[in-house]
Structures are given as C-alpha cells and as structure tokens.
Amino acid sequence: MPRFRTQEEYDNAGVIYGLTGGIGTGKSEVVKIIRADWGYPVLDADVIAREVVAPGTLGALLLRMYFGNGVYRLNDEGKLELDRKRLGELVFGDARARSALNRITHPLVFLRIFWRIFLLRYIARVSTPIVLDAPLLYESGLAKFCAVVLVVYASRSQQYERLKRRNPDWTDVDIEQRIQAQWPLERKMIRADERIDNRGTRAELREQVAQALQRLRLQVSLRARKKQKYLAIALGLVFCVIIVIAILYPSK
C-alpha cells in the first residue's frame, strides 16, 4: 500500500538546502551523513566545477585563452587534464587572477547546477529536499537560490590538520591563502539558518546533522503554509471586492 506524504514532506519536496563552510571544516563528512541517513540528493559544486573545465569544454577553452596552455597537462595515462596545482599558483594570492577565474567558471557552474535542479524537480520529481554543497555558496551568490543554508564549522587548527592530511605538499602559506580566499567562517555563520559544529566526534556530528535537518524541514514547511495563508487571504479579498462591485453595479 503506497504511503502518502505528510504536509511537511510535501512542502520540502524539491526545496534547495544550501550547504557550505570553510575549506577543511569537514563538509564532505556532513554530505556522507545526509546521503546515508536521509537519502537526499546532493549536488556537489566542486565536482560540477571540474566538469565545466574538463578538456574539450567551453570552460577549458576560456581558461587556456586567459591563463595560457600551461594550465593543462598530460597525466600519467597520456590524457590531457587541468593542472590544478599550476592554476592554484596563479590565482591564490592574486585577487585579479582569482576574479578572472570566477568570472569564467561561475556562469558555467550555475547553468549546470540549475539544469540538474530542473531534472531532479520536474523529471525525477524528487520527494525530498535537494542539497547544494558549495564552498563558495555565499561568495558566488548561489545562496540566494537556496531556501535555507547550513554552515559547517571547525577550529582553525582542525582546518590546517585536515588540509595537510589531504594535501601533504601544501605549505602553511598555501593553506592560509586558500582560507583567506573565502569569506570568514564567522560571516557565514551569522547568515546561516543552521550551524553545524564539526569539532567533535562523528557520532556528535551525526546527531547535529539530524537535529539541524529536522528544524529546517519544519522551518521550510511553516514558511510554505504562511505563503498559502497569505494567498488564501488575498484571493478572499479579491472575491469580496468582486461581490461588492456586483451588488453596487448590477448588470442590466
């Protein structure tokens, strides 16, 4: 027997939940928990950003025109790929070069994200929220397309530790440049609807994610019902005006 959706599930279906945080704060762990425990589809802006600059794409052509052919190289398999280390050396620490990179890639990333949201909403007809995982959610302007936003945070020392573990060849200067290239965590936390503290254990993180998502589902549902209430009031007023006009000016 099919299970009917609750009003809260209906209100949250296809709604965009933004997920962001500083580099090295552990967003990937939060994404794993959301996928495993909640089954929400997650759009990874980093993965999409790699797709739009893959060899043979418009993004690759624009990058080579601006930064030169040196930002692409042959890998061990003899295939052309973006040299992320070389590109990082060019843009981190150079605000003008970083701005140029963003002007090239952000529109392409936006278009692909919106297309995938369309497919999930209107073709797959998902019955859950859609999570948009984007490190630059606020910086890029993507946050304004999200109904609610979660921010993951950790201590600066934990950020350094995680980034060192993930990128052993990065120096402290490399790490600091990448942290400084994003908004301060405090600024993101002030704007967010929910904040997830990733300074503890995985069990604690899992519990925080569950509580945050439950609160956001309720928040989105209450907003939807408020809009429905205002719409009903507006339609009622229009109907009353029509009735009054009909009484005062009856048709002959």
From TrEMBL:
Keywords: ATP-binding, Membrane, Nucleotide-binding, Transmembrane, Transmembrane helix. It comes from the Eukaryota. The keyword Transmembrane helix applies. The chain crosses the membrane at residues 230-249. GO terms for biological process: coenzyme A biosynthetic process. SUPFAM superfamilies: P-loop containing nucleoside triphosphate hydrolases. One of its GO terms (molecular function) is ATP binding. InterPro entries: Depp_CoAkinase, P-loop_NTPase. NCBIfam families: dephospho-CoA kinase. This is Dephospho-CoA kinase. The lineage of its organism: Eukaryota, Rhodophyta, Bangiophyceae, Cyanidiales, Cyanidiaceae.
